[in-house]
Amino acid sequence: MEFPILVEGLHFAYSKTPVLNGVDMRIRKGSFTTIVGPNGSGKSTFVKNLTRMVHSGKGVVTVNGRDLASYSHKELSKVIASVPQVTATEFDFSSHEMVMMGRYPHLRRFQPESDLDHKIVEDAMRATGVWEMRDFPINSLSGGEQQRVIIARAIAQEPEILVLDEPIAHLDLHHQIELMRLTRKLTKERGITVVAILHDLNFAIEFSDYVFMMKDGRVYKEGPPANVIKEEYIKDVYAVDVTLIVNPVTGNPHVIPR
Questions:
Q1: I want to staple 168 with a disulfide (CB 3.0 to 4.6 A). Which of 9, 114, 141, 176 is the partner?
Q2: Mean pLDDT computed over 49-54
Q3: How confident is the model at residue 88 (pLDDT cuts 50, 70, 90)?
Q4: H or E stretch covering 26
Q5: What is the pTM of this model?
Q6: Could you tell me if 130 and 145 are in contact, meaning their C-beta atoms sit under 8 angstroms apart?
């Protein structure tokens, strides 16, 4: 299926306050798709609708040609894995236990984890650089380390679609680049469809196949990064003046605040 995620006319409100005002999106299979926009533009609310973290609003949302609301929780967990902005737990699970939870959608009730499950978890933890922390309690880790554990859990879930809500917000520069390269690699090597909210427009330019820019609960512009992240659009959406230069390494546009 060319577009596993189709959204038409999605509206959503919190306590009668509109947040999404008719969002339309088609997300291509195996693409790295980024959603950008200022705070309050509806980015996080959109992905919460997509991952059913909130009750679906009015409109049409289909995943693999099927109404999102028709999926059971377990069925949806085999298709979509999500990494929220903040993950809190009251229980002191080890990092390894937390990542192993990503295998639960693939297990029957009371079925023990197999050697393959353990191998998948180890590979995911090594890929995100947290294997050496596997025995550490999750609550003993820094915010950035916890984020990498949660991303490892999502990878271990072996989803078709990976949804990331500001995945690099709590990471240092080294781990930001490492994570973006990893998620990009997932699209290239495994055909996973990645949908990521990013605040850093330069990361969006360098790693995305397609960008949706949101404003006031709607899609303002969409297309390849260079067609969307333009000086005049940034001025209109973010109310800030920028200059675009050419990145001397990649040849892509690079945003410089004035």
A1: 176
A2: 88
A3: low
A4: strand 17-27
A5: 0.89
A6: yes
